C-alpha cells in the first residue's frame, strides 16, 4: 500500500469506528498538527516494522480495531463522553500494546472479537475489506481461484501486479504456477502472513 493510501485508510477506518461503535454519526477527522505528526510516526513504524507495501486493508482494520477495543472495554472509566482520541489509537502507547501481542494470533483475535465487534455491533472488516476477504478460512481459499489466476497473468512480475494482488487476492499460494514464478513471491508471502495469519498457517507455511 502506498503511504498516502495508507494514511487515508487509517483516517477512514478511525472515522468509521467512531461513528459506528461509539455513536458519533457524522463525525469527521480534522487533523491537528500534533495528530498529523502522530500519524506520520505511526506510518513510519509500519514501514520500518512490516514494509508499507506489505500492509493491506485487512491488517489495518484489525490493528485499528484492536487499538479501539482497549478503550471500548474500559469505556466506563474514562469520563470522556465516549470519545476515543486520535492519538490514543495511533500513538506510542497503542503501538506498545500491539507489540506485546502481535505474534499471539489467538489472543489478538479473542481480544477483538469478544469486545468491539460483537458488543459494539461493528462490521469494519466487511465494510472496508469487502465480501471476497470474508470467510478466508474456507477450503476455497486454500485452493487456487481461476478468476485470480486470470488477473495475475495480465500483470505478472510487475509492481502493478503485486499491488493488485495485495488489494484483490488471497495472496501467495504455492498451488499457483504464476505465484511460483513471480518476482514478488517472497514479498507476497510476507504480506500473506501479515494480513491473513490464519490462512498462512492453513497453507502450511509455518
Instruction: State the order of secondary-structure elements, H for helix, E for strand.
Output: HHHHHHHHHHHH
Average of per-residue pLDDT values: 78
Range of strand content: under 5%
- The computed structural class is mainly alpha
Characterization of the model:
The protein folds into 2 domains: 3-132, no CATH class; 139-202, no CATH class. It is built from 12 helices and no strands. It has helices at 3-21, 33-49, 57-72, 86-90, 92-101, 105-113, 124-128, 146-154, 159-168, 177-181, 185-195, 197-202. Helix 1 runs parallel beside helix 3.
Could you give the topology of this structure?
Elements lengths: L2 H19 L11 H17 L7 H16 L13 H5 L1 H10 L3 H9 L10 H5 L17 H9 L4 H10 L8 H5 L3 H11 L1 H6 L4
Helix pairs in contact: 1-3
Summarize this structure briefly.
With 206 residues, this protein is mainly alpha-helical. The chain has helices at residues 3-21, 33-49, 57-72, 86-90, 92-101, 105-113, 124-128, 146-154, 159-168, 177-181, 185-195, 197-202. The protein is elongated.
Keywords:
mainly alpha
